[in-house]
Amino acid sequence: MPYIKRKQLAGMGVHYKFCTLEQMLDAQAAAGYQTIELLGIAPQFLLDERGYENPVRVRKMAEDRGLHIGCFTPECACYQYLMCAPENGVFHEKSMEYFKRGLEAASRLGAEKLLTNCIGGAWDEEYEKVYDRAVQSLSELGKAAEGYGITIAVETVRPEESKVIIKLPELVRLLKDVDSPNVKGGLDTTAMGVANETPREWFEALGDDLVHMHFIDGRPYKHLVWGDGLYPLADYLEILNEYHYEGLLTQEITDSRYYADPGLADKRAVDAFRPYFIEE
Q1: pTM strictly above 0.90
Q2: What residues form DSSP beta bridges with 233?
Q3: Which CATH topology does 4-278 take?
């Protein structure tokens, strides 16, 4: 029988786009989460290259509702601050400062992980040039992460989002070239499915270096509540158990169909895992 510890299941707030932070935290606590992955976006947590809002206040808001912020994810997919931002003007420099502020904020929020990706290379750049910038950026941030006691989890993305690090072999190469104990792998099951990969392949390639997951249903596109896509939840959990994975399983629910009632989406997400919860 596949199993999951309740604290491994983490809520995320993409689908609370039109809600306050208080509304999101109330709804996710009511849904049954004990852990969340906080986003560095308005209206949840404001962050830029100069600083961030009061993390002590936000952490207390979560903890008052019985929620632990296990991972912090600065916005990393919009063209403002990007890991592989071109080195023209101050774009890349400001992006690096942004992610360093994100690491600092993560530590003060009580998070153990920071999730990111390698979006940002221009489509007409040579692949290796963008790839080298990813290595340079993550090597720099890995050193900063060590000082904060944070592990950076790097996920692959879909080919519409980036020209580099969209498949597992690229991520394996990247982590080897960065060679930092504070930079590891993060599995997004949607990007995995689009790349025609499997969870077993990810564990075989990364082993203990797979430290975080956006573990959602898909077709394979979309980031869906379990039951709305085509992925076999029980089968996937069996594989996670086989490889003794104990990291977070974040419910990155992004499809606009969930915007009208995000609390219901979270309740359905938690309910999908209830048959697999074990006592800790």
Answers
A1: yes
A2: none
A3: TIM Barrel (3.20.20)
